[in-house]
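Morning F.,

Quick status update on the modeling queue. The single chain you submitted on Monday has been processed. Sequence for confirmation:
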Amino acid sequence: MEATTELLDVLLDTPLFFIVMSSSFAIAGGYIINNFYDNEKDLINRPLKSIIDQNISKNTQLKTYFSLNFLSILFAYFVSWRAVLFYSVYIFLLWFYSHKLKKYPIIGNISASTLALLPFFGILIHFQNFGAEVFTHALYLYLIVLIRELVKDLENLSGDLANNYQTISVRFGEKTSKYIISILVILTFIPAFILSNYIDTGKMYYYFFTSSGCLIAFLLSLFQAKRKSDYIKLHILLKIILISGILSVILIDCRVLLHGWKMIEK
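Structure tokens below.
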């Protein structure tokens, strides 16, 4: 009954729903403004996507961007003034990253990874959950996201070079970028080990064991990668690890899932 009550509390939590909606609209707006500034780079890196984007006027893109941001702030308003402040700053940072920060080595990668995880901290603040296990898990996901950003730079190297984006791959070369990625992959094993052996994460140790194996395979493939298609495959693998990590949170307490299915059947 306790697990069922916890599930209902989450599903019926109206402020949480507003936070999720606010995050979704802000992220969607960030995606649009990022594409807006990346238009010339995408002509080289993603020609098919650029053809589709050219059918949408810049005016329409900007109107959609501002509309999504308005909806994000509106949903935040229904939560609290602190939520409005949080998402106002978040929207500004998304714009600032797309306009300026992403063009610089290291700063661009770190800011992109931080912005990817910031909405989750909004949810943590709502639940007032600041335990060591949460931050250790966040560190693990942050390292994966940071690795993904560096792989994206390798994947988009041609467009970055043509548009003078000073990424790590452009500034220091592919080999240096791969060494940095390797160090970050090794660092992921530390939070994974802590979460699997010293913190009660239920059955989630299955995820950390599997993802660590995938990261070893990723590392072996990284130094053999030479073509854009090779980096795309590595990028997809990292996406799978990230999505699996989010979905596998339910393994922390499987009773919630079991009781949820029983409720649906009833």
